[in-house]
TrEMBL record:
PANTHER family assigned to the protein according to its UniProt record, in alphabetical order: PROTEIN YJDN, PROTEIN YJDN-RELATED
Taxonomic lineage from the root: Bacteria, Bacillati, Actinomycetota, Actinomycetes, Pseudonocardiales
Residue span(s) of domain PhnB-like: 6-130
Name of this protein: PhnB-like domain-containing protein
Pfam families linked: 3-dmu-9_3-mt (PF06983)
Domain of life of the organism encoding this protein: Bacteria
Gene3D superfamilies: 2,3-Dihydroxybiphenyl 1,2-Dioxygenase, domain 1
Length: 135
């Protein structure tokens, strides 16, 4: 799998509706994973979206989630750039450079879903998420 670069949008509880709308606009395959499916069953956000991905027939990819509990949803700053793929060496190199003079909000390490992941804001104020898919 080649590395992929795409927008990642954060919503305030309406990610499912937004992603279904984008599917009606762009077509394609939509996957939706809830917080409940990811270990937060029985919580107030159980049915909200932890991660979603729309892959369109034209090659567009949009990823999105509802803002997790404890994090602020601030319209205007709710879009990040996502880098993902299975080339760990390449993606770790991007992470090192992007986070070097920036601010790390999620350290780059193995996550509960099994991938290596980190989130940072680069020195220019752009939010990045880097995910190395584990096979």
């Amino acid at each position: 799998m080649a590395s992929r670069l795409n927008p990642y949008i954060s919503f305030a509880g309406d990610a499912r509706q937004a992603m279904e709308f984008y599917k009606s606009v762009f077509g394609g395959e939509l996957t939706l994973n809830t917080f409940g499916e990811s270990g937060m069953a029985g919580s107030p956000v159980e049915n909200q979206i932890m991660h979603s991905q729309l892959d369109s027939p034209s090659g567009y990819t949009i990823m999105a989630s509802d803002t997790p509990p404890g994090m602020e949803h601030k319209p205007g700053t709710n879009v990040s750039v996502s880098l993902s793929g299975d080339d760990g060496e390449e993606l770790r190199g991007y992470w090192e450079k992007l986070s070097a003079e920036g601010t790390v909000s999620v350290p780059f390490e193995k996550q509960m879903w099994g991938d290596e992941f980190g989130a940072c804001t680069d020195k220019f104020g752009i939010s990045w998420m880097v995910n190395v898919i584990q096979s």
